[in-house]
C-alpha cells in the first residue's frame, strides 16, 4: 500500500512537472528592440522577437497612415507584407517554401512622416497566430508605441580655403526660403595662363565644404555628376544632394553666368546696370547678388536697400570687381592687398571657431 502511494505521488509529480515545463516553454513575443523615438523622415523597424523558432506566422498591424508609411520590402524572402490590406492595416505572413526553415526575429520596415510637433504613434499587432515545433497558438494583441520627433537640423557651417569662401544662406533679401550656396573668390582664385583651373570654380573646390557639412552633391542642373574635377560651376547652377535638397549657386563676380569671375563681360554687365535703371531692374536676383560684392548692411544688421527696394549696387561694387580682375587681392603678395583675400567687402559668412 505504501509502495502504491509512493508511485501515485511520483506520477503526480511528473505530471505537475510537465505542466510547469510546458508552461515555461510556451511561445512568447517581445517588441523591446523596436526604437522608442524616431526622427521624422527616417526609416525604422518594428521588431518582433520570439522566444523560440517559428515555422509559420500570420498577423495584422494597425497603424496611422497620417504619421507613418509602412514599407513592403523585407530582407527575409519568406516574409510577405501587404501594407494596404485595408485602410491603416498591414497584413504579414511568414511561409517558408523550404522544409526545416524557421525564424525567431521578424522586422517590419516603416518610415516616419513629417510632423509639426512631437507625436506619439501607436501600432496594434493583432490576429497573431504562430506555429512552432511544440504548438500552434494565437497570441494576445500587442501594442507598440513610439514617438516621432521633428528632425534636428544642423546649421551648415561656412568654410574658407585658399581659393574660396563658401556658405549656404536661406535668409538673404529677396531670396528667402531658397538655399543659396554663396561662393566668394579668395586670393587663390585668379587668372593664371599656365593653370586655367585657377580662374574657374570646379565641383571639387567644394570638397572641404561638403565634407564638413556631410553634403554629397549628386547632380548639377539635373545632370548626374561623373567627374568632380571636370565639372565647372557658375552663377545660377542648381546643385542637388543625395537627400534631394537643392542649392542655387551664386559665384560672386560671375554676373553674366558664364563661370568667369570679374571678367570683361561681368564688368560691362554691372556698368550697364548702373547707368540704366531699367537694366538694373532686369537683373535676376542671383545676378544681383553675384554683383553685390560690397554686400552692405545698416547698423541694425538689415540689408541696405535703394529707393526701389533693391539691394544697393554702386560704383564701389564695380571698383571692387575691377581690383579683383587686376589681381589686387593677395596672390601676388602685393602689400596693397585691398580685398583682404576675399571678393566680399562686408562678409556675409559666419565662421565657427
Give an account of the 3D structure:
The chain is an alpha+beta fold and 353 residues long. Helix content is 19%, strand content 31%. The protein contains 6 helices and 20 strands. The strands form 4 sheets. Strands 2, 4, 6, 7, 9, 10 and 11 form a 7-stranded mixed sheet that branches. A 7-stranded mixed sheet has the order 12-13-14-20-19-16-17. The longest helix is centred in the first third of the chain and has 23 residues. The radius of gyration is 33 Å and the shape is elongated.
SSE map:
Elements: H1 2-24, E1 29-30, E2 37-39, E3 43-54, E4 56-62, E5 68-70, E6 79-86, E7 89-94, E8 103-112, E9 119-131, E10 136-139, E11 142-149, E12 159-160, E13 164-169, E14 180-185, E15 201-202, H2 207-212, E16 217-220, E17 223-224, E18 232-233, E19 238-241, E20 246-251, H3 264-275, H4 277-282, H5 285-291, H6 315-326
Parallel strand pairs: 2-11, 14-20
Antiparallel strand pairs: 1-3, 3-8, 4-7, 4-9, 5-8, 6-7, 9-10, 9-11, 12-13, 13-14, 15-18, 16-17, 16-19, 19-20
Helix pairs in contact: 3-6
Helix content: 10-25%
Task: Look at the structure and give the mean pLDDT.
Answer: 82
Biggest pleated sheet: 7 strands, mixed
Q: What low-confidence regions span 5 or more consecutive residues with pLDDT below 50?
A: 17-24
Q: Total helix count?
A: 6
Spatial extent as radius of gyration: 33 Å
Which descriptor suits the 3D outline? Answer: elongated
Number of strands: 20
Q: How much of the sequence is in beta strands?
A: 25-35%
For the termini, the CA-CA separation is: 93 Å
| SSE topology string | HEEEEEEEEEEEEEEEHEEEEEHHHH
Helix/sheet category:
alpha+beta
